[in-house]
């Protein structure tokens, strides 16, 4: 008997990038799968919601930040033990407000990434992201 793979969950993910190339990471809070792991902020896309709208909503709810502009960057599918996700990454260089920990999560601005552990779906993107951050 074959197991059916659940349909992937669409997730909007935002990479806030400062002019110097620093990017914002958030730490997954206690009680969630992979608690304590670092990731880019974001969250599930609601049914019928545009991905960019989900991104803006999540950043407002989690960090109190208003995304002004965001460019689609890449998409990644990853199967975790608890969920099959389709991650839609956006890079935002323009936002209003300073990130606040509205859901009790830690966050950190990073140039060269020194955080551990990093969420598995995020790790392969870091090298690729460096090319975007530091291209001349």
TrEMBL record:
EC number(s) reported in the record: 3.6.1.55
Catalytic activity: 8-oxo-GTP + H2O = 8-oxo-GMP + diphosphate + H(+); 8-oxo-dGTP + H2O = 8-oxo-dGMP + diphosphate + H(+)
GO molecular function: 8-oxo-7,8-dihydrodeoxyguanosine triphosphate pyrophosphatase activity; 8-oxo-7,8-dihydroguanosine triphosphate pyrophosphatase activity; 8-oxo-dGDP phosphatase activity; 8-oxo-GDP phosphatase activity; metal ion binding
Necessary cofactors: Mg(2+)
Enzyme class: hydrolase
Family that this chain belongs to: Belongs to the Nudix hydrolase family.
Protein name: 8-oxo-dGTP diphosphatase
Organism encoding this protein: Paucimonas lemoignei
């Amino acid at each position: 008997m074959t197991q059916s793979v659940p349909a992937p969950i669409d997730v909007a993910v935002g990479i806030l990038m400062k002019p110097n190339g620093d990017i914002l990471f958030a730490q997954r809070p206690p009680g969630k799968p992979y608690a304590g792991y670092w990731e880019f902020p974001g969250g599930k896309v609601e049914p019928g919601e545009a991905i960019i709208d989900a991104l803006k909503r999540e950043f407002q709810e989690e960090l109190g930040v208003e995304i002004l502009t965001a460019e689609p960057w890449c998409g990644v599918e990853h199967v975790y033990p608890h969920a099959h996700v389709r991650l839609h990454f956006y890079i935002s260089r323009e936002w209003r407000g300073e990130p606040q920990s509205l859901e009790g999560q830690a966050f950190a601005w990073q140039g060269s990434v020194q955080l551990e552990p990093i969420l598995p779906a995020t790790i392969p993107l870091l090298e690729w992201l460096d090319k975007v951050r530091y291209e001349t």
